[in-house]
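FYI - complex with magnesium ion, inputs then prediction.
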Amino acid sequence: FDDKKVTVIFVLGGPGAGKGTQCAKLVEDFNFCHLSAGDLLRAEQNREGSQYGKLIQTYIREGTIVPMEITIKLLENAMGDALGSKTGEGWGEGRGRFLIDGFPRKMDQAVKFDESVCLSSLVIFYSTTEEVLLERLTERGKTSGREDDNIESIKKRFRTYQNDTMPVIEYYSAQGKVAEIDSSPSIEEVFKKSTGVIKEVFA
Ligand code: UP5
Ligand code: MG
């Protein structure tokens, strides 16, 4: 995609940090299309006839990162769909603006996306403690039906986050693209800070 036509914000943070919650609120106030890599993978997993269903299920349950080709293809398709269906009104002079949630979470994905899809303008990084994450995920696990909201998978997701995703955050940090927001406070408080960051960058 043409960097002049497409604006991308990556939204990162540990499992349960509040990426999805904040993105859902942000799209109410700003003209962004919210794409969650995890949601796209879960949809593909459940799509009848998908050749990747079983593979995706295994990676998600183990808390490891699905091979990047699959995730990048799903994101590219979703971006293409959004651009095709929504060019013109509501998209700020026809520019596609995307909040990409939970991606890239491993260095190979980050490099590949930057090289072959487009460069991001900003990385919002929601940080908090594992204690907070664990509490949120176990609470959500009571009703979410997510196969990875159990204590074994949660621990594996924490490990993957430390080993694979933290280097991505450092990589973008070195490029001066990262806005870190403490996501321990209430949803409303975190939202206020998120709004502030987006306004500052896109003023
Ligand atoms: N909550 C949120 N904010 C709160 C706040 N401020 N105060 C109190 N409670 C708050 O929130 C989690 C829970 O906390 C909710 O109940 C919410 O109400 C509450 P949510 O907004 O869902 O957090 P989020 O960060 O989106 O958590 P999620 O579980 O979605 O994060 P993950 O990063 O673990 O999940 P994701 O769906 O992105 O990925 C799942 C798996 O897919 C990965 O583990 C991996 O196996 C695979 N994957 C890939 O392989 N490649 C990719 O590129 C992406 C994913
Ligand atoms: Mg999420």
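The helical segments are 19-29, 37-46, 53-62, 68-86, 107-116, 130-144, 151-174, 187-201. Residues 13, 15-21, 36-38, 41, 59-60, 63-66, 71, 102-103, 105, 136, 140, 148, 157, 183, 186-187, 190 surround UP5 (ligand 1) (CB under 6 Å).
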